[in-house]
Amino acid sequence: MTLNEQFGSLGLMVLMGVWIGASFSVYQRFIHPHGKKRWILFATDPVFWIIQALLLFALLLPLNEGVLRFYLFLGVALGFSFYKWILEKPFLYLFDGILAIIVQLGRLIGKSVTILLLYPLYFLLKLVYRLCRMTVNAILKILLFLLVLPLKIFWWMLRLFLPGKWVAGLEKKMIGARRLFVKWLTVITRRR
After folding, report:
1. Phi, psi of 37 (to 5 degrees)
2. Has residue 84 been placed in a domain?
3. Domain residues for 142?
4. Where are the alpha helices (DSSP H) in 32-84?
5. Mind listing the pLDDT tens digit for each residue in 122-145?
6. Are residues 7 and 73 in the same domain?
7. Per its UniProt entry, which superkingdom is the organism in (predicted)?
8. Separation of alpha carbons 109 and 100, rounded Å
9. Residue 156 lies in a domain
10. Residues 108, 109, 110, 116, CA torsion sign
11. Quick count: other Cβ atoms within 10 Å of Cβ 154?
C-alpha cells in the first residue's frame, strides 16, 4: 500500500468519523425514547452500528482493499471527536431548522389540501344532499296534494249525502288517523 493510499484511507476514516457522529446525533434525535420504551434500543442500537460498520468497510474496500490498520481506527475516533467538539451544535441547529421547515411545509400542504379540496368537496356533498332533500320534499308535497284533493272532494260529497250524526262519528274516528298521518308526514318532510 502506497503512502497516497494510506493518507487517502486516513482522510476517508476521519470523514467517516464525522459521518458516524452526525448520523449518531440524528439517530438519537429520532430513535432514542425518552421514557418507558427503552426496550426498543435492544433492536435499534445493534442495527445502527452494523449499518455504520458495513458502510465504513464498503467505502474502505475500494480504496485500500479493506485493509484495517490501527491508525484507521484512530482516524475514525479523530473524526468523531472533531464532530462532537466543533460540528455537533451547528449541525443540530441546522438539522432542527430543516426539520422545522419540513414540518411547517407538511402542515401547509395539509391545510392547503384541506382548504382547497376537502372543504369544497364537503360543501358540494352537502349541497347535493340538500338539493335531493328539497326535491324529495317537493315531490312528497305534490303527491300529498294530489292524494288529499280527491279525499277532500270525497269527504265533501260524504257530508252532503250522509246524515249529520254519521258525519260527526266519522270525524271523531278520523281525528286519530289524521294525527297519525300528520306525524308520519312531519317525520318524512322534516328538515335537518
Report:
1. -85, 50
2. yes
3. 121-189
4. 41-64, 70-82
5. 999 999 999 998 998 889 888 888
6. yes
7. Bacteria
8. 14
9. yes
10. positive
11. 10
pLDDT tens readout for residues 30-69? 887 666 677 777 888 899 899 999 998 888 888 887 777 8
Q: Which residue has the cell 303527491?
A: 143
CA distance 22 to 20: 6
Q: Within this chain, do residues 84 and 126 fall inside the same structural domain, yes or no?
A: no
Q: For residues 46 and 82, what is the distance between their CA atoms, to the nearest angstrom?
A: 24
Q: Which residues of 30-60 are buried (b: 16+ CB within 10 A; e: fewer)?
A: eeeeeeeeeeeeeeeeeebeeebeeebeebb
Total structural domains within the chain: 2
**For 1-39, what is each residue's pLDDT tens digit?**
677 778 888 888 999 999 999 999 998 888 876 666 777
Exposed/middle/buried for residue 155 (C-beta within 10 Å: 0-12, 13-18, 19+):
middle
Q: H/E/C letters for each residue in 82-106?
A: HHHHHHHHHHHHHHHHHHHHHHHHH
